[in-house]
Amino acid sequence: GLKEVEKRYRERYVDLFANPDVAQVFEARALIVRALRRVLDAAGFLEVETPMLQSVRGGATAKPFETHHNTLDMPLYLRIALELHLKRLIVGGMERVYEIGRVFRNEGISTRHNPEFTMMELYQAFADWTDVMDISERLITRSAHDALGTTVVTIRDTEFDLAEPWPRLSMSEAASEATGRTVHPSVPLEELRSIADEHGAAYEPAWGTGRLVEALFERLCEDSIVRPTFVTGHPVEISPLARVDRDDPHVTERFEIFCDSRELGNGYSELNDPIEQRLRFEDEQAAKEAGDDEAGTVDEDYLRALEYGLPPTGGLGIGMDRVAMLLAGVDSIREVVLFPTLRPEQELT
Questions:
Q1: Whole-prediction pTM value?
Q2: Residue 1 predicted with pLDDT over 90
Q3: 346: which residues sit within 8 A by CB, 6+ positions away?
Q4: Is 52 helix (H, G, I), strand (E, B) or coil?
Q5: Which strands form 229-232's sheet, in the order they lie side by side?
Q6: Is the pLDDT of residue 310 over 60?
């Protein structure tokens, strides 16, 4: 077989016939996507397509790829998420929609990141974050069953049954336990900075308490998450499109799916108040003007859609590449992307 890693990725056509197990990984990936479609179609969701070229970047915190449309003489962005157009469809009365498509983020390359990757996003009217948590478990469990023939996966030499209920972990509670101090967005900013300094969590001067809570969680807690887990209690500051928690105004009704220290998905009760959404967008715009390349901007058309009325909605996004990594038992995203982004050959020589 072909063993040289760089050559394997660059000449995938050789890799596929030289290493039969590589082809099996991509066959499993196809079964995973097929399983998601089967579950969602049976649940009454409609698969749709939304624009890859967008005039306003939004739906996630990430740096976009920029381009220019010559005829219209206007800048455009390759989408960084599917979210905002899909929620426009909910406004229009399409109550259950999903899309499986490529998104693009102009960021670093690593074993977990490729500049283009595949997302599945779904939105369900008259649902909230608890409903899409249930859907998340069903989707990934069914994917494992169809791709592997079992719902049992091995992570760090330990077997876990995906069909068992997934635990839930509060971001603030986990960080508080790790530090022995109260870590919550309501804690004064200087106190959280002191805790971050004490535990080596890096932060920017412009960050508020919400970003500091996230930094402490990432620094102290993420690596210990092995089995699939719902991480909850995300601060408002880092969740510009999520509804405020009905019991705690400092956090949102949001969760992230973590497994083997990797984020697999993200979901929440959608913010549907156009006034509050405008304030959140303006905060992002201010961060962008202060130098944050990943911050979003004010999307006037999306705000207009919210004014027509977005019903209570639950939304979910799952990274298909990372699910494939989990179920295939590989540690690099390049193992589950047929043609990963690579540096040009002439630069290497």
A1: 0.94
A2: no
A3: none
A4: coil
A5: 46-47, 96-104, 116-125, 313-319, 262-269, 254-259, 229-232, 168-170
A6: yes
